[in-house]
Design a protein that fits this description.
mainly alpha; globular
Length: about 280
């Protein structure tokens, strides 16, 4: 039961939390929370416990390429979502993810340091190239929106956790970071609230991915010498610190207002100009 919760329940719960946070605080905040390793963290933990620490460390190092690929996923989706509908936008973004991850395999062979620096560079460049979105009020969504998003996320997570261990540590690492939460947020926001709101979510995701990359790097470097408990504790501290800085920046960008129109304007401001505190 605990195994099932961490593999499926926690990522699905995160999709629900991120959706509600996005509706309340704006897509930028929702995007940052969406990049918390609620899926990748538990998967790597179970790999360390069920396989061994070396297997999990290799998967974490391979996952760095996926973290960079997630940044490119967000960039490509944001660039094309105004031109095509969500199915084509999703296909293009996933294609970009796979290409980036494949290219990062070569970089990963040079060592953990070059892989981390390259991933951070990809995320920062992706952030810079993201298009701006004009102020857009949030459209009303159906009551079934949240359960549908959570069900879609559960289906994707089940596939990833089932298929990954069959193909070794490297493929497991790639599947650990394959965009599931990001894809659910992007596809549903695009279909229901339009491309401009979607771009705001993608902007937030690129900021949150810096913390995810730090989490993976700490795990890859410390799992074998320090063991599971201390390695995950250090990685958790790293991601909390980076995500806190990014989330604080996003919340500061919200201008306090007295009515709903001020909230909409503040959300738009956060989407368009998030301070880059974590750089």
């Amino acid at each position: 039961m605990i195994d099932l919760f961490f593999k499926i329940g926690l990522p699905v719960l995160m999709i629900g939390i991120v959706t509600l946070a996005s509706h309340r605080y704006g897509p930028a905040v929702g995007g940052i929370l969406g990049a918390v390793p609620a899926k990748g963290g538990p998967i790597l933990l179970f790999l360390a416990l069920e396989q061994n620490t070396a297997f999990a460390a290799t998967s974490a190092a391979a996952s760095l390429g996926g973290a960079g690929g997630c940044g490119v996923f967000c960039l490509v989706y944001a660039l094309v979502c105004r031109r095509v509908d969500w199915p084509l936008a999703g296909a293009a973004a996933y294609g970009a993810f796979v290409v980036t991850w494949a290219a990062m395999l070569l970089v990963s062979s040079w060592g953990l340091g070059p892989a981390f620096l390259t991933t951070i560079a990809i995320l920062l460049v992706s952030r810079r190239l993201l298009p701006a979105a004009p102020p857009m009020p949030r459209r009303a969504t159906a009551k079934s929106d949240l359960p549908t998003r959570m069900f879609a996320g559960a289906a994707m997570v089940v596939f990833v956790t089932t298929v990954g261990p069959m193909f070794g540590a490297t493929i497991s690492g790639m599947l650990t970071t394959i965009p599931t939460v990001a894809a659910v947020l992007a596809l549903f926001t695009h279909a229901q609230e339009g491309p401009d709101r979607t771009i705001g979510v993608m902007r937030g995701m690129t900021h949150g991915l810096l913390g995810f990359a730090s989490f993976l790097t700490v795990l890859a470097a410390t799992l074998v010498p320090l063991g599971v408990v201390r390695a995950f504790a250090l990685a958790a501290v790293a991601v909390v610190v980076v995500q806190f800085v990014e989330l604080r920046s996003a919340l500061r960008a919200r201008r306090p207002g007295a009515d709903a129109s001020a909230d909409v304007a503040a959300d738009a401001a956060a989407d368009l100009a998030l301070p880059e505190a974590a750089e």
